[in-house]
Prior knowledge:
By secondary structure, this protein is an alpha/beta fold. Helices cover about 40% and strands about 20% of the residues. It has a 5-stranded mixed β-sheet, sandwiched between helices. It has a 3-stranded parallel β-sheet with strand order 5-1-6. The N and C termini lie far apart (about 70 Å).
Amino acid sequence: xxxxxxxxxxxxxxxxxxxxxxxxxxxxxxxxxxxxxxxxxxxxxxxxxxxxxxxxxxxxxxxxxxxxxxxxxxxxxxxxxxxxxxxxxxxxxxxxxxxxxxxxxxxxxxxxxxxxxxxxxxxxxxxxxxxxxxxxxxxxxxxxxxxxxxxxxxxxxxxxxxxxxxxxxxxxxxxxxxxxxxxxxxxxxxxxxxxxxxxxxxxxxxxxxxxxxxxxxxxxxxxxxxxxxxxxxxxxxxxxxxxxxxxxxxxxxxxxxxxx
Length: 260
């Protein structure tokens, strides 16, 4: 039986709603829309990305960006305090819709969640007392039995230290806010972290210097954690990141928190 052009046109129009209905009803995008709240997990101890300056009050580059994402979703941001050790368990348990705060892209995390498109390249950089900058230029120079390396637990900094600095003396310090004081007070020699944090903390503490932050020891990317398997939400966040970057908004926010 032949169909007329008119019949085919009617069939095509009738199928338009089919594509709209193909979007899963249980996406994060729909949940945020229905609840009017974007739940954001963050450790809140990592300048310049996210820092809890008072209980429940956060500031930083990622915090400013999450405000624009929440606005794009017609929702209000709601921060869920976590730690680097509990970041993945909290996220996988569904305590939040997105996780931010200077999160490095790793394959270990990728096994349990999606990542957004990366928004910053930010490799591992030594932070040490300024008089020791010449001593700690390379991984080999740091990875020595006499060198005291300090790291915060549960994140990529600890992983880097255990993977690449196994010969050095490793001290795990649970508070990422006071870890810099340990280096200043000579209780540790080196803290290896992302270049952005090393730069910010060296400006906040004149005794400390970032070692070659423009040439990190290891390549790394920053991105946001997203629910695994939720393609709809990932595409929305990636498109928002693209437009944010193209409009110059990201450059403005970065300049605010990471001035040249």
